[in-house]
Specification:
By secondary structure, this protein is mostly helical. It is built from 13 helices and five strands. A hairpin with a 3-residue loop joins strand 4 and strand 5. It is rod-shaped. About 10% of the residues are buried.
Length: about 675
């Protein structure tokens, strides 16, 4: 503008040839100085505005970087929470493996004890069988010896009868008696030898059997003794009967002998002395033989009794040692099992304490991060408000100064401003109509796009105010630049028109009013856009889950859709780690059964319903669970992939209250 006004001043001053101190020259010089000062001031304001814009861009970049750092911190926190969860799962799996190993060892110990009992039973049966065989062999040996004795006595009686009837063959009979005696002695010696061999064999068998019958029971030994006593009583009774029979036979023989003696008394008297001498010798020999046999039998029985007592003592000693060894093994196994269980309990307690401490630290860290984020957000908003107020004040000041500089082109500026405003309004209405038409078409698309728009709505609304302010400021600056350009064009077109003070003042008032009207119009359109989403939601009174019932049900921890399972685990961790410890302690003090609860979540993270499949039996516990679910709202919205498949997700878990909440 300085170049456009200088030629207009020169033609007026040259023809007059007025001195430099005239009023016209002073006015022109003053106007030139004022115009130059205004231009310099405008340049300075423009430089300040650009500097402020650069600083605002730098602050916006810094806020974006801070937001990125916060997102990275949140991602790191999520990663740490996942690692803690994995560590807890690994610790639980290790504890379960230790418990299974303990149960397996106990089962192996029980099985070993069963095998030992079976082995002892088999050994007892084998020992009983060996004892029965030994007793049977002894009984057969006693029967054989008794038969030999009876046969010897029968032969002796026959020999005496032959001696009585055949006196003339006394010498032959004596020889035969000697031979018979020698045979009997040899037979007795053979029997004694066989008895000794049998005793040695029995002792050897008993020694071998002792190694196998260490666990024989006392009751069986008593039964065997009772049976042996019965057998001994039977044997003694048979011996008494045989003695009676022999006594009867002897009496009969004596009667016959008396008859024969009566018939041959004379011959008997002659040979009586010799016969009596032989009879006495034979009786002495038989008595000596009987005593020897009785002594041998007594020695054998005594040896057998001592051997049996020794075997029984060894068996009892072995039983006591085996019982002591088994008791020591059992005590050691119980001690080890108790020590292992105590170690497992302490390990579980340490892991539980570590998990609770980790949950507490995680809750404190999240709370600190939330407080820090809220503080930073409040500081950023306060700085943004101060910066916006300062920019607005500077802008109004620049507009006021700019209006004073453009006072000469008020009428044209008003006309062009009205035309531009009308064109802008029409263009904005056309764009708004196109946007509304596109919004209607977008609302008719798939539920996935609608869910994505709902999730992005919060972020868009948060940034909407800043975007609107920036757009509004840019629009007003654009209008101001257009007004400046039009004023410059008019000034070039009319160089000789003298400026009027009232014209500049009226133009400034009109321009300020027009700018305010444009601002109100932009504010009203923004308010209409913000009210469009609630209005669209109000047209559909049903909840999302009923208007389009695409539901997913997750009854356990696993699912074919891994993202669905991860969503349920994220919700469960939020409940477990963020619930107040006082509430958990209060609920845990009330006797109740673990309730089975189904919680349904919409795609925007809101809670549709909380249903108790199995109640806790205590109304206060059920109310506490509903209150816990309500206190942690809102929950994480569905991811775009999950939202394209489902509108509602139902998660069923069993709630356990101890030192903390556990959802199984």
């Amino acid at each position: 503008m300085a170049q456009g006004t200088a030629p207009a001043i020169a033609p007026e001053a040259a023809p007059a040839q007025q001195p430099p101190h005239t009023a016209a020259a002073q006015r022109d010089a003053l106007e030139a100085v004022v115009i130059t000062a205004q231009q310099q001031e405008a340049a300075r304001l423009e430089a300040e505005r650009e500097e402020r814009a650069r600083q605002a861009a730098a602050r916006l970049k810094a806020s974006l970087e801070a937001e990125q750092r916060r997102q990275a911190a949140r991602a790191e926190a999520a990663r740490l929470a996942a690692e803690l969860e994995q560590a807890a799962q690994r610790a639980a799996a290790q504890l379960e493996a230790q418990q299974q190993e303990t149960a397996r060892q106990q089962a192996a110990l029980v099985q070993a004890m069963q095998h030992e009992a079976e082995r002892q039973e088999i050994a007892r049966q084998a020992a009983a069988q060996q004892e029965a065989q030994r007793q049977e062999a002894a009984r057969q040996e006693a029967a054989r010896i008794e038969a030999a004795r009876l046969d010897a006595e029968r032969q002796e009686a026959a020999r005496q009868v032959v001696l009585e009837e055949m006196k003339h063959q006394e010498a032959a009979q004596q020889e035969a008696a000697r031979i018979e005696t020698a045979r009997l002695e040899a037979q007795r010696q053979e029997l004694a030898r066989q008895a000794e061999i049998l005793a040695i064999q029995r002792q050897d068998a008993a020694r071998r059997e002792t190694a196998r019958i260490e666990a024989r029971w006392e009751a069986e030994r008593q039964e065997a003794a009772r049976q042996a006593a019965q057998l001994e009583a039977q044997r003694q009774q048979a011996a008494h009967q045989e003695a009676a029979r022999l006594e009867a036979a002897r009496l009969e023989a004596e009667h016959q002998e008396a008859a024969r003696q009566a018939a041959a008394r004379l011959e008997a008297q002659r040979q009586e002395a010799a016969r009596q001498q032989a009879a006495r010798a034979e009786a002495l020999r038989q008595e000596a033989l009987r005593q020897a046999m009785a002594q041998l039998e007594a020695q054998r029985q005594e040896a057998a009794r001592q051997e049996a007592a020794r075997v029984e003592a060894a068996r009892l000693q072995a039983q006591r040692q085996e019982a002591a060894r088994l008791e020591a093994l059992r005590q050691e196994a119980l001690r080890q099992a108790a020590a292992q269980l105590e170690a497992q309990r302490q390990q579980a307690a340490r892991q539980q304490t570590a998990r609770i401490e980790a949950a507490r630290l995680e809750a404190e860290r999240q709370e600190a991060m939330r407080v820090a984020a809220a503080t930073l957000e409040a500081q950023r908003q306060a700085a943004a408000r101060e910066e916006a107020a300062r920019i607005e004040a500077a802008r109004l000041e620049a507009l006021r100064q700019e209006a004073a500089r453009r006072a000469a082109a008020q009428q044209e500026a008003q006309r062009q401003d009205a035309a531009r405003a009308e064109a802008t309004r029409l263009d904005a209405e056309r764009q708004e109509a196109a946007r509304q038409d596109a919004a209607r078409q977008e609302a008719a698309c798939a539920d996935a796009a609608r869910q994505d728009a709902q999730r992005e709505e919060a972020a868009r609304q948060a940034a909407g105010a800043q975007d609107y302010e920036a757009q509004r400021e840019a629009r007003l600056r654009e209008i101001g630049r257009q007004l400046d350009a039009e004023a410059a064009q008019r000034a070039q077109a009319q160089p000789a028109a003298p400026p009027r003070a009232d014209t500049g003042k009226d133009y400034e008032v009109l321009r300020e009013a027009r700018l305010k009207e444009i601002g109100r119009e932009l504010d009203a359109r923004a308010a209409q856009r913000q009210a469009a989403v609630p209005a669209a939601r109000a047209n559909n009174p049903l909840p999302l889950s009923l208007s389009n019932p695409r539901r997913a049900r997750l009854w356990g921890r696993t699912h074919a859709n891994a993202e669905l399972a991860q969503y349920a685990e994220t919700w469960a961790r939020k409940i477990q780690f963020n619930t107040d410890g006082g509430t958990v302690h209060e609920v845990a003090q009330r006797p109740h059964r673990p309730p089975l609860v189904t919680a349904a979540f919409r795609s925007d993270g809101s809670v549709e319903s909380v249903v108790f499949e199995i109640s806790s039996g205590v109304a206060a516990v059920d109310d506490a669970i509903r209150r816990i679910v309500d206190e942690h709202r809102p929950y994480q919205p569905f991811s775009p992939t999950l939202a394209r498949e489902y509108d509602v997700v139902e998660v069923r878990r069993t709630w356990h209250f101890d030192t903390a909440i556990r959802l199984d």
